[in-house]
Amino acid sequence: MTGLHHVTAITRDVQANVDYWAGFLGLSLVKQVAGFEDARQLHLFYGDAAGRPGTLVSFLVWQDGAPGRVGHGQPAEIALAIPRGRIGDWLTRALQHGLSVQGPLREFGAPVLRLRDPDGIIVKLVGTDLPDAGWPAPPQGLSGVTLWSGDAAASAAFLARFGYAPQGTEGGVTRLASGRDVIDIRDAVGFVPGIPGTGTIDHVALRVPDTAALQAHRAVLSDTVMHDRLYFASLYVRDPAGLLVELATDGPGMTVDEPADALGRSLRMPPHMTDDIDLRLQLPQFALPGEERRPMRDLPFIHRIHAPEDADGSTLMLLHGTGGSETDLMPLAHRIAPRATLLGLRGRSTEEGVARFFRRLSTARFDQADIWSEAAAFAAFWEGAVAAYDLDPARLTVLGYSNGANFAGAVMGLHPGLIRRAILMRPMLALDPVPAADLTGTRVLTMQGARDPYRPHAPALNDWLVASGADLDARVIAAGHELSQDDLDAAQGWMAT
Questions:
Q1: Whole-angstrom distance, CA of residue 398 vs CA of residue 410
Q2: Separation between Cα atoms, residue 477 and residue 447, nearest integer Å
Q3: 30: closest CA among 141, 176, 192?
């Protein structure tokens, strides 16, 4: 048994990805699963309705992640098979959706439309002699992939052992055929090397019938890594040019953990992962085409929204600590207010490669210009988010930790009246000089750690809040700079009053 099993790429926007692959292309979403290597990384599989090998395209979701760079040592194009006579229908459909499209072109004698998905990945629709299933109809599976290789001859020789034989050359591309599909190898000598990231294809998987065949390949290949992916067993290996190739078994298939008529409808967990609310809170939510959805807006801060099924109209806006992300505080916030909508922000300043809400110059000295600039951006975000997501400002509470708490305090000084309710965990006063501000009507809970090395810097913030007219509840928690159960208990009690 030869041919492609699946292709795996990386996306930075799960909703745009679903809208394109399940919406525009019409493929079936046959699996949504927490990542086997990193459960906080959603993994989506598209294919035919049964999720058969040879039809599958999968995406690792790096939500709002950094883009990669396409270069040698990577797959660069995904080709999907359509009936030859439907090229015109797909061209019209692409134009109706406002998509940029090249073609029809001819590649190795076949008509081809070249498109790009929302991440910029090249998707080719290749006209073949498949039977026509009518219109509209999704592509009928993978017809091929294009690999960029710094050693095309070595890559071709490597793939020959898996049933791919030379079929011809066109320009700088050598075509290998398996009988089911093709692999095109572009001679990429002189190109820059690829860099993993969103908008790139991670690897190509080839079909093997069973684990016995997988073990036979493992016995003769070097530097392999074997995994049980529940839906198939797999073996990872790199070809002589550095391209990552996976060998994947045909079984047991996508129906091993959910019925055939419900594939892809619910989030699945790998067997070795604990299915808990904390994990689900950190995975991005999305809607299938036709389902009710919350449209996401392009606002000054990267952000993530988690809406519970029984939302009560309140919102917790989350500001992480140094090195955190927009989802770090979601498990804690959900425990504080289980029915609140959670809106997590990602700080835009960086320090040694980690995210912050403003830069620091030393342990207790901060970049004041950066604070002012980021506070203005936050005020714009606040106004945009309230309008775009129909949030009730009177029921909006800011929850900040460490750098995020310091930032919330600074925003209250520079934009008084914007934040009216705040829970600040391990905060300190960041502004210098401290502005006069009228915080009448603002409720604030501050929580310092009794053993926190930053605690000596904390009283100045509490004194300023009181002097500015805030309704302050200042507490000392039996902890260090880390968060504890006492923080949760205090926040729950304060929110209930």
A1: 13
A2: 6
A3: 141
With a CB cutoff of 8 Å and minimum separation 6, the contacts of 212 are none
| Burial class of residue 172, CB neighbours in 10 A (0-12, 13-18, 19+) | exposed
pLDDT value of position 273? 86
Instruction: Report the pLDDT value the prediction gives residue 161, as an integer from 0 to 100.
Output: 95
Q: What is the pLDDT of residues 289-324, one digit of tens each?
A: 999 888 899 999 999 999 999 999 999 999 999 999
SS3 call for 152: helix
pTM of full prediction above 0.90 = yes
Whether residue 275 is predicted with pLDDT greater than 90 in this model: the reply is no
Mean pLDDT of the region 22-28: 98
Angle (CA) 334-340-343 rounded to 5° is: 80
**Angle formed by the axes of helices 403-414 and 459-467, to 10°?**
30
Are the beta carbons of 14 and 286 closer than 8 angstroms? yes
| CA separation for the pair 155, 466 (Å, rounded) | 69
Cβ-proximal residues to 279 (8 Å cutoff; 6+ apart), any chain: 34, 39, 40, 269, 273
Q: What is the pLDDT of residue 148?
A: 98
Count of H-run helices and E-run strands, the chain = 10, 26
Indicate the SS3 state at residue 23: helix
CB 17 within 8 A of CB 44: yes
